Every structure is written in C-alpha cells, then in structure tokens.
Amino acid sequence: MSKYNRRTFLQLTGAAVGAATLGAGNATARESESRFFINLRDVERSAIPDDVEIIHDLSQADVLVARGDQDSVNGTTVSDLTIDLSDDTTGAVESRDGPSTDGNGSSHNHDGAPTNSEYQWDKRVQDLNNDLTDKPGGGKSVHDVTTGAGTRIAVVDSGVDDSHPDLAGVVNDDLSENVSEDEFDFRPNGAGSHGTHVAGTIAATNSNDAPGGGVLGTAPDTEIVSYRMFSGVEGKQGDGYAGWVKAAEAGCDAINYSVGFPAPFVYPDQYPSLLEELRIAEQVAEYVRSQGTVIVNSAGNDGLDMSPESTLSLPTEAEGVFGVSATGPIGCGWGGKHSDNEAKWLTGNRLEEPTTQPAFYTNYGSAVDISAAGGNADLEALDAEVEGAQIDLVYSTIPGGYGWKAGTSMAAPQVSGAVALVRSLRPDASVEEVESLIEETASTPEEGEVYHGAGHLDLTALVDAAR
C-alpha cells in the first residue's frame, strides 16, 4: 500500500493547515467558559452580561469575540472555531543533492548541489529576477520594474522567524504581535514553520551568504507584519479576525491568510452555524477592505468543488475575500527528461505536467478568484523515493533553513506578493482596482475558470499593466 495520499502528503510537507473542529460552544459540546462571536448588528452591547469577557473588540466590524456563557447573551451568537495546524513536519533539506551537469552543452553547470534559489521554479517561471535563471541575454525581469518597495503585507499565521538571514530586516518588529491568548510574542510558538515559509514566499531577500545562498520572494522590498494566531498547534478563528483588523489599521496593503476549514466543515446542512460564521467573516472583510487592505486566502486542500450551494468553505467564500487555488508541475528537475540546464527545467517536454497544472489536492469552483503556484506531486514517485521528486513542491524559508511545502497555503502568498508589486507602482489603487488588475492580467490555462478563476497569476503582465 502506498504511504502517500492527499492528506499524508500535505502533513508531510507541513501544509495541512485548517483541520478544523467546531470549538467549545458548539451545539453538542458547549462549555460554560466557551469562546464565541457576538454580532453587534443583532445584539445591543449594553445587554451583554458583565460576566461575559470580551477577548477581542472588533466593533469596527460590529463583531466581538467573547468568552463566557453563550446562552446568557440574547441575540445572534455563534461559536468560535478551533483550527488545528496539524503535523507541521517541514520537509527540511538535510542534503541539497540535485541534478548534475550532463556535459552536453548545458549553459548551466552545477558545481556540486544546486543553490537554494535554483529550486524556486515558482519564481523562475515568472521571470521574477535574472539572478534566478541563466536564460541567454537575460531580458527584462519583474524586479527590473518593481521589488515592492514602500508596501506592507500582513502574515496572519503561525508566526514568522525574523532571525532567518533571508528575512532579517524584513519583519516590522514594532507592528508585529501575538493575537492569540498566550503570553509570547509574534514569533513561532510550537506551531512549526508554516508562517515563516509563507513570509519567505512573499518577501525573502536572498541575503544568506552561506554556501548554497538564499531564496528570493516575490516582493523582497516589502515589509512583513506578523500576527501570530496559533498557540502551539491550535488557533482560533476569532484571533485570526483580530489579526485582520489590526493589519488593516496598521496600513497593510494585503493580508495573507493561508488558513481555512476543510471537509466536513463546509456543509451548512450539517453545521447550520456556518451561515452565521459567514456573516461574521463578511462583516470583518467589509471593514478591512474599507481600510484599503486586500484579503488573500488559500482556497483549501480537499479537492472540493466549492460551487454547489450545499458547500460553504470559510473564509474563502465570504464576500470580499480573494480566493487562491494551487497549481504546480510534475517532473521539475527530475525524471530524466532534461539536461542540467535549469532554465529548461520549466519548458517543452521537460515536464510531465506544466507549472499551471491544477494541483491534485486543490479546491476549485466558483469561490476561486485566481490560481498561483502552490506545488504539486507525483505521489508514486514520492512513494518510490525517486531522487528530486520533492522539487515539484514550493521551496522557501523555514526556521533555521529552507524546506519544501505544498498547498493552497503556498499559493496564496504568491498573490499577496503580487499585491505588494501593484501597490508599489500604484500606491493609491483601491482594493477593487488591485484585484481587477491581478485578474485582468492573468494567463488562461486550458483547465479554465473552474480551476483558475480569472486565470493564472502572471507577474510580468501585471507589472507591465500597473506601471
């Protein structure tokens, strides 16, 4: 029996974020000291009992996150959701052995292992920076137009390791904070490397001067603000929404929220409270957007069609949330179909499947606004331990080094970085204008709207249109 399926693969790569339970206070297990949302559009604040503790005051969005006896509040309340970050085994690289030169005229000869940035197929295919490729003549890259200077992106996640050499000076320590209820700061606290990987995809600077070098983010001159919502492996949706509001009020151009709730927690007929959860998400999103902040969200990793009314994936399907599905190649840098010319890893018959191929795990359907690189996998090749098969995943920063992950969690930060590029060129562009530019400049893979929404993220076309 194969040791890999969709879930074990995502757990192995540390991308299985969002295994959810309807937390304390739901219909079957309500605790007297449970956490819940109070909708101030239905409840008078003066009518809230004094013994109900307000954890987060989000009254800007007519929402309170509270703890106490939910039944004591007359009006619309709904339980907060507990999010399980799951097993965040990082897939960190102990040995960076990769393809070696074949001696047949390859324009790129590896002296030993490839550098870290050479594993970044997601950046090279976008012509992000000429330092990432050996294309003859180079040509204009995205970073010749903009590197995202003057912008700010929030990462609401498991925390960001700002001591990483590729993130040094990138994270705003003054604005970053812990929005969970523990006593620690914004840095990872037992929840693994998820947030650090996301931050590197957005803003890594390729500054590591150690052998092997570093990695490069989409917008290396943007600023990251880390709002840590996970305490250990668990987080609360209410803490995430608190991060949203804080990010908007800190002037962030986008919020990267690579968090969501997988099946079976998408079926309103089984969980009617999801409809109230949707109202809460939309109220918070409405306020955040009014402050000029784009909310970028991972669409989920259940291979689920989100189009039917019988499914409701949160917060992706909330009005005002920009949902991102995942794509990735099969056969990048392995499989015997190419020489060692890394510039050719991504072209022609060098790949079994192109970088725009919908990932086998990605959610799809009407809630998807755009697709982006999130990584893919040949599970049989992984099961057989084929050398290099992990290169089809997304490579980025993790605490203490670098590692591969895959998931819509890895696709969302590609788009958050794109927001930084747009806002660096058009600082006064509205949320709607930024989203429209990203959609209008997207490429159109053959799988069409059902998997890609408006299309696949195209950074070259985007910055050309934005400048």
From TrEMBL:
Pfam families: Peptidase_S8 (PF00082)
Lineage: superkingdom: Archaea
Biased composition (Low complexity): 76-90
InterPro entries, per the entry: Peptidase_S8/S53_dom (IPR000209), Peptidase_S8/S53_dom_sf (IPR036852), Peptidase_S8_Asp-AS (IPR023827), Peptidase_S8_His-AS (IPR022398), Peptidase_S8_Ser-AS (IPR023828), Peptidase_S8_subtilisin-like (IPR050131), Peptidase_S8_subtilisin-rel (IPR015500), TAT_signal (IPR006311)
Entry's Gene Ontology BP terms: proteolysis
Domain Peptidase S8/S53: 148-450
List of catalytic residues: 157, 194, 409
Disordered as annotated region, ranges: 75-117
GO MF annotations in UniProt: serine-type endopeptidase activity
Keywords (A to Z) from UniProt: Hydrolase, Protease, Serine protease
PANTHER family, A to Z: CEREVISIN-RELATED, PEPTIDASE S8
Family indicated by similarity: Belongs to the peptidase S8 family.
Protein name (record): Subtilase family protein
